[in-house]
Write a structure and sequence with these properties.
With about 375 residues, the protein is an alpha+beta fold. Helix content is about 35%, strand content about 15%. The strands form 3 sheets. Strands 1, 2, 3, 4, 5, 6, 7, 10 and 11 form a 9-stranded mixed β-sheet that branches. Strands 12-14-16-15 form a 4-stranded antiparallel β-sheet, covered by helices on one side. The model has no long low-confidence stretch (mean pLDDT about 95). The structure holds pyridoxal-5'-phosphate. Pyridoxal-5'-phosphate binds next to helix 4 and helix 5.
């Protein structure tokens, strides 16, 4: 690796004023301490409390949806989102081969089968054209249901994921869903603060899921939420994430086998404070992109991944695409050895042991991009 790369590293460390720059750190510059202290002082730290309701309301408003249901992590949110969207055991769910394992796990919790589709180079998310070509190849519409001719199973849903905060082509996916009787469920875990044609991501699917894990754009420690415009689905999601208990002052009556997935009040308190900072975080994440754009300009063989047309990205994780002149692992070793944390993309789902046998489409794009993408430090740029 040459002096251009050393300069790149020096500039990043100088900006963050650190000898070791992590990939993504939470930023607590708002009322986090005040709200969390309030929980401790009042004793309302656990499963019920005013911050949960407030967080759900604030989040729904921010994301431009009617309802948000807070849960304990993004994986739980995806599980319930798919379940209330109607995904059932022995059905298939289209999802990108490039995602965090939670998307495939959540489908599996229901007993459904992930069906992997390729990503687009424009978005790094589910490719609508390749999806439709694949449906025409293996699908058959019968009685208003899409059947996989090869497995005989119903294909129920499409679960796109907005990779590193970049929105996928949602309108194209919506029309594929209408045409082939599929339900759209967005894995919006990474895309709080990302817009497609001016509308917030997570508002296009029948149901969507967000994550507030420690490395996400805002954090509740651990947490997640289900978003929907459907009041009935939202109420059902709330019901089955809170043990399906019939409200009563002292009786414990539950009307189905359900989940204890609720978000504790103390985590919601953190979330309320973080959410207040979202406009500033987005500004500073996007300013970081401008900072990197200038730095990357002098690195040969590297492009900074930019938001797709018609979208506004939260730039959750900054992304470099390496050309064939660069060896990915050499770049990763060099950056990590020199105090700039960077990492490859996730192992594609179809290469993971639990999902190797799952049905899949042609995955040529992810196969070729796989060894060319890395993420670099993405904590919001310093203020001022
Ligand atoms: C973070 C993430 C999730 C959910 O993660 P949790 O750690 O369970 O909150 C789901 N899908 C994707 C794509 C993610 O990045």
């Amino acid at each position: 690796m040459n002096t251009q790369w050393l300069e790149f590293i020096d500039q990043i460390k100088a900006h963050y004023q650190k000898d070791f720059v992590p990939l993504h750190e939470p930023t607590f510059t708002g009322k986090e301490l005040e709200y969390v202290t309030d929980c401790i002082q009042t004793g309302w730290v656990s499963s019920v409390g005013a911050y949960v309701t407030r967080f759900e309301e604030d989040l729904a408003q921010f994301a431009g949806v009617k309802r948000a249901v807070a849960v304990m992590n993004g994986t739980a949110a995806l599980h319930i989102a798919m379940k209330v969207a109607g995904v059932q055991a022995n059905e298939e769910v289209f999802m990108p081969a490039l995602t965090f394992v939670a998307t495939a796990n959540a489908a599996s919790y229901i007993g459904a089968v992930p069906h992997f589709v390729d990503v687009s180079e424009k978005t790094l998310g589910l490719d609508p054209q390749k999806l439709e070509a694949h449906i025409l190849d293996i699908g058959d519409v019968k009685n208003n249901q899409l059947i996989n001719k090869e497995t005989g199973r119903v294909i129920r849903a499409v679960v796109p994921m907005h990779t590193f905060g970049h929105a996928v082509e949602l309108e194209e996916l919506q029309s594929i869903c209408e045409k082939y009787h599929l339900v759209l469920v967005e894995d919006a875990a990474e895309s709080l603060g990302t817009y497609y044609k001016g509308k917030h991501t997570g508002g296009f699917g029948k149901v969507s899921a967000i994550s507030f894990n420690g490395n996400k754009i805002i954090t509740t420690g651990g947490g997640g939420a289900i978003l929907t415009d459907d009041e009935e689905l939202a109420s059902y999601a709330k019901h089955i994430t809170t043990t399906a208990k019939i409200p009563h002052r002292w009786e414990y009556e539950h009307d189905e086998v359900a989940f204890n997935y609720r978000l504790p009040n103390i985590n919601a308190a953190l979330g309320c404070a973080q959410l207040e900072k979202m406009p500033e975080f987005i500004k500073r994440k996007r300013a970081l992109t401008a900072f990197y754009e200038e730095l990357v300009g002098s690195l040969e063989g590297v492009t900074l991944f930019k938001e797709p047309a018609n979208t506004s990205s939260n730039y959750w994780l900054q992304t470099l695409i390496l050309d064939d002149t660069l060896e990915r692992d050499e770049v990763l070793t060099f950056l990590n050895n020199n105090g700039v944390m960077s990492r490859p993309i996730w192992t594609p789902m179809h290469d993971l042991k639990p999902f190797r046998e799952c049905p899949r489409a042609n995955l040529s794009t992810i196969e070729s991009l796989n060894k060319k993408i890395i993420n670099i430090p993405s904590t919001p740029i310093k203020e001022g």
